[in-house]
């Protein structure tokens, strides 16, 4: 559901860009509570995976296809704040490298496919998992969260189009058409999300952000049939398992999807394009500013094969999202940025330079006490 240039007037485009920028800024700060040295690479992998799976359009109705949006999936795997950052990176890479989604509509796309899908999906997921625990419940909640997030984004598009769309179409007409087709797309999104989350839960549950603290309670049954919930003793501290093997395997699967399976994607227009054509506002779309370069439309413009375009997009997304996550992560000393000296200086009200100077001065004193005078 990538919105092209020309669907919205300047006021809505600028306002949506401001909302998107503010949302990303908030999430940069919030992601510090979700990311550390060990989980930051997972964010890069999740963004790359979303990019790859978005290339796999699947049929949902006669002449209509859909693809993963990915906001709910990313929120469950790496946390809601980090998920918005992942989605923003995916949309930036798609817009600037592959001419997928308008540049003037970038704020709209980040708002709809990043903020709305993450908020709706994470909200549904948390609502369900507050009362249900265990792997099956988490997988089911993932399906429901993804299912709801897609029509939520579609209805948000209808609202924005009513406010500042460039074609005189009734909001009820657009909302009904967008909501209907995107419920079907949401079912596909739910299945993809549930399978992905379930697979990661089965192999590395410690890397699923949404599964933290959601282990199913141990129920004890007495001789008379009565059941009691056993108190959970604190788990002994254990060294974290290395994530590198899982990350390498995930990167391999992602490359396979983008460079190989993408050849099987449906060529039918997606839900937004189909609705725009049926309701008569597809002609409002304008040419993309970067639509003539070789990688535009995922290589179709320049004749670049998908087995090249897919891995290139995955690599760019992985590097950019990984760098953003690494910069936003919480350091080992518990601080969100700077060095350990800066953290120590912040506690004492000084600067990093002062802290370093104090260390040097202390060393000089030690050296001085051990010397002799002339």
UniProtKB/TrEMBL annotation:
GO cellular component: plasma membrane
Gene3D superfamilies noted in UniProt: 1.10.1760.20
Keyword Transport attached: yes
Chain spans, region Disordered: 331-374
Signal sequence bounds: none
Claim: Metal-binding is one of the keywords in the record: no
Composition skew (Low complexity), residue ranges: 345-358
Alphabetic keyword roster: Cell membrane, Membrane, Transmembrane, Transmembrane helix, Transport
UniProt biased composition (Gly residues): 359-374
Membrane topology annotation: Multi-pass membrane protein
Pfam hit, one: CbiM
Subcellular location: Cell membrane
Swiss-Prot/TrEMBL GO biological process terms: transition metal ion transport
Transmembrane segments: 6-28, 40-62, 68-93, 105-125, 137-163, 246-265, 306-328
Domain PDGLE: 246-330
InterPro entries: CbiM/NikMN, PDGLE_dom
PANTHER family: METAL TRANSPORT PROTEIN HI_1621-RELATED
Protein name (record): Cobalamin (Vitamin B12) biosynthesis protein CbiM
């Amino acid at each position: 559901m990538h919105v092209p240039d020309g669907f919205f007037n300047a006021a809505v485009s600028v306002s949506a860009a401001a909302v998107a920028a503010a949302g990303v800024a908030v999430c940069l700060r919030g992601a510090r509570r979700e990311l550390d040295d060990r989980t930051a690479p997972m964010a890069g992998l999740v963004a790359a995976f979303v990019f790859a799976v978005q290339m796999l359009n699947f049929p949902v109705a006669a002449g209509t296809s859909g693809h993963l949006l990915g906001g709910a999936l990313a929120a469950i795997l790496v946390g809601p704040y980090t998920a918005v950052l992942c989605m923003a990176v995916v949309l930036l890479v798609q817009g600037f490298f592959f001419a997928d989604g308008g540049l003037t509509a970038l704020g709209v796309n980040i708002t709809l496919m990043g903020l709305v899908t993450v908020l709706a999906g994470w909200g549904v997921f948390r609502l369900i998992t507050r009362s249900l625990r265990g792997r099956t419940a988490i997988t089911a909640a993932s399906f429901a969260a993804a299912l709801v997030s897609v029509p939520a984004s579609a209805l948000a598009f209808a609202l924005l189009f009513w406010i500042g769309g460039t074609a005189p179409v009734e909001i009820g007409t657009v909302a009904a058409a967008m909501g209907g087709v995107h419920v079907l797309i949401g079912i596909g999104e739910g299945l993809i999300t549930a399978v992905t989350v379930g697979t990661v839960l089965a192999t590395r549950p410690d890397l699923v952000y949404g599964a933290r603290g959601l282990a199913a309670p141990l129920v004890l049954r007495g001789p008379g049939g009565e059941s009691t919930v056993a108190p959970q003793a604190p788990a002994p501290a254990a060294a974290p398992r290395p994530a590198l093997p899982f990350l390498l395997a995930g990167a391999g699967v992602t490359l396979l999807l983008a460079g190989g399976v993408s050849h099987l994607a449906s060529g039918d227009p997606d839900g937004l394009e189909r609705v725009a054509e049926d309701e008569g506002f597809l002609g409002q779309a304008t040419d993309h500013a970067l639509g003539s370069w070789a990688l535009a439309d995922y290589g179709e413009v320049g004749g670049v094969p998908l087995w090249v375009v897919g891995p290139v997009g995955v690599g760019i997304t992985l590097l950019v999202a990984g760098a953003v996550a690494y910069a936003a992560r919480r350091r080992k000393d518990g601080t969100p940025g700077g060095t350990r000296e800066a953290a120590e200086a912040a506690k004492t009200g000084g600067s990093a330079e002062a802290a370093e100077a104090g260390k040097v001065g202390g060393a000089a004193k030690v050296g001085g006490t051990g010397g002799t005078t002339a």
